[in-house]
Amino acid sequence: MHDIAFVLCSRLDYIYKYSALKSLNLVRLNEYISHYETLNYDHQHIRASHHRARRSVTKDHYVHLKFQAHGRDFHLRLKRDLYTFSDKLEIIDNNGPLDVATDHIYDGQVIGDRNSYVFGSILDGVFEGKIITERDVYYVEHAKHYFPQNFTQIQQQPQWESMALHSNISTSNGSSSDGMEDGLNTNNNNGTSSNTSSIPATKKSITEHHDDVIKTIGFHSVIYKDAHVDDVYQQRREEGE
């Protein structure tokens, strides 16, 4: 009888939560996150700003990131975090010391929000981290963590893409050959031949593939509130009481 009552209560709780989500127009990200929104700020601009911060001699260059989400405006002012990791940090494995880069770690605040704190990282111009404000806590993550099927093509696409560009070569009588025609064809009417030249295939970087995927799906990040993260251990605690 107790088991039947427990199952009934669990189903009623699910129905209640599902109805609440529909009434609030919430968009579930996965079984643990009941609502999220997407971000599509200019990550290429942030990438350039991050590179300037890395090269800054004074090490006080700020990266400004602005976006709208969850019914409010965010203006993050970020600065490279030079204190969490020591300059003398060393990581050693069985093969010896490893190269360690910490120049992508940032912290800062939300401008206009008292006592706010932001920390995270910037890779390929995309911020991932935690935003703490007086009223809420937000998590920002790269979309690839939740939509991997879109980003796996970054590794699957060949590194070399055909970029053969045919050029028009003028003949001795002033005519020009069609760049889209076979360069070995000969024009028998005027006794001249047309040749084509091609530019060698150029390597398309992982960054370029990354940018292409973002253009395709229309966003690069997801942001959700701590309040929208379900407590997966709540039921177990209630069962133990």
TrEMBL record:
Residues spanning the signal sequence: none
Q: What are the BP-aspect GO terms?
A: membrane protein ectodomain proteolysis; Notch signaling pathway
Return the annotated region ranges for Disordered: 168-203
The GO terms this record gives for MF are:
metalloendopeptidase activity
Spans of biased composition, class Low complexity? Answer: 168-177, 185-198
An example of a Gene Ontology cellular component annotation for this protein is: plasma membrane
**Top-level taxon of origin:** Eukaryota
* UniProt protein name: Pep_M12B_propep domain-containing protein
UniProt organism field: Glossina brevipalpis
Per the UniProt record, the lineage of the source organism begins with: Eukaryota, Metazoa, Ecdysozoa, Arthropoda, Hexapoda
